[in-house]
Amino acid sequence: MPIVNRIAALHEEAAGWRQDFHRHPELNFDLPRTSAIVADRLREFGCDEVVTGIGRTGVVGIIRGAKTGSGRVIGLRSDMDALPIHETSGVAHASTVPGKMHACGHDGHMAMLLGAGKYLAETRNFDGTVALIFQPDEEGGHGARAMIAEDLMERFGIQEVYGMHNSQDPVGTISVISGAASAAVDWIHIAIEGKGGHAARPHMSVDALLVAAHIIAAAQSVVARSADPLQSAVVSLCAVEAGSVFNVIPQTATLRGTVRTLSKATQDLVEQRLRAIVEATAASFGATATLTYDRACPSVMNTAAECGHAALAAASVLGEAGVWRDVDPAMGGEDFAFMLEERPGCMIGIGQGGEYGLHHPSYDFNDAILPIGMSYWARLVETRLPS
Q1: Is pLDDT of 1 > 60?
Q2: What are the DSSP E strand ranges found in the chain?
């Protein structure tokens, strides 16, 4: 089944919305312009309800089908926030806000869900109710939790929830992964306390920077020698702070980084081993060190039945060849995982190709895939809630 004809006619309009969002990026929960435009569009489309201020700046649009006897309600989610990156794409619709840009495609995600919403509000060819969820602060990892904390699922009676994210897979593909689709995200902070002193008298000091270097090296043994080689794990220590002058041995050092895992068992193992390595390595030099381990976001765990529904909708748009099921999970994080802890559902990846990947300063969403994403959302609703 090709692109829905009515949706094909919305392509230019949706591209206009997308490029406007791109020109005016906003961060985290601070989305006054973005959320106001989303809410205004949903009202223009004739949504039955438009609710703002959920999770501070989140927006929900409710569309009831021509029939509602099934009593079924599904949620479709888009993120809205941009990133603190200075754009270098050079496109005509580049960011007008220095130091901020849509480098993750959330501008495109919004445009696709808005276009699907306009189509669904016009046609209402389904039996049930659709909740269009526009979420703030995906990049900060707090937006989904903020909306859930304000009873998102219960207030609108949502029974299943679906998400979408663009990828560098080829245009004309949608990936559907059952089970773990993206990694859990943990933040690590290591504070090291040694004994400062003169660089010419190291024997009278306990060098916190030397301790930090040994911890950085030893931490890599967690993945190399402690974790099951068949269970994915990443330990990345990405920031070091120690010392400020050339002739003083620093008394303190700080390390910051991230851990990514796909299973709870591996996550527990990594935390346990890191804690032992940090404390023992510091002690071996006569220093002390403390590990703060923050489990920031769980893994996206797609449920099997809902993956089947997503794949069916994708195949109706792209054909079976366009649905990629044998795809490795991503080690990036996605706070849609919190919604999947509340309800069954599925996050799919929509291919957009492109030279530059997510979070690159020259990234730009590919407007050519807007009709694919809009059609996918529409077909998901119509096949999941048949009239």
Answers
A1: no
A2: 49-54, 58-64, 73-79, 129-135, 160-167, 174-175, 179-182, 184-193, 197-198, 233-242, 248-249, 252-261, 288-297, 300-302, 323-324, 345-351
Residue-wise pLDDT for 16-75, tens only, equals 999 999 999 999 999 999 999 999 999 999 999 999 999 999 999 999 999 999 999 999
Residues of the chain with CATH 3.40.630.10: 5-182+299-384
Per-residue burial over 332-354, b = 16 or more CB atoms within 10 Å of its CB, e = otherwise = ebbbbbbbbeebbbbbbbbbbeb
For residue range 91-120, list pLDDT tens digits in order: 999 999 999 999 999 999 999 999 999 999
Is the per-residue pLDDT at 2 higher than 90? no
Length of the chain, in residues: 387
Exposure string (b/e) for 246-261, b if CB count within 10 Å is 16 or more? eeebbbbbebbbbbbb
What dotted CATH number matches 5-182+299-384? 3.40.630.10
Q: What is the mean pLDDT of residues 82-91?
A: 98
pLDDT of residue 4: 80
* Buried residues in 89-118 as b, exposed as e (16+ CB within 10 A): beeebbbeeeebbbbbbbbbbbbbbbbbbb
The pLDDT tens digits of the residues spanning 187-234 come to 999 999 999 999 999 999 999 999 999 999 999 999 999 999 999 999
Average confidence (pLDDT) over 245-265:
98
Question: What stretch(es) of the chain map to CATH 3.30.70.360?
Answer: 187-297
Question: What is the full DSSP assignment across 104-150?
Answer: SSHHHHHHHHHHHHHHHHHH--SBSEEEEEEES-TTTT-HHHHHHHT
Q: In whole numbers, what is the pLDDT of the chain averaged over residues?
A: 97
Q: Counting runs of H as helices and runs of E as strands, what totals does the chain give?
A: 12, 16
Closest CA to 22 of 105, 85, 79: 105
CB 358 within 8 A of CB 105: yes
Question: Contact, 344 vs 383, CB < 8 A?
Answer: no
Architecture per CATH, domain 187-297, reads as 2-Layer Sandwich (3.30)
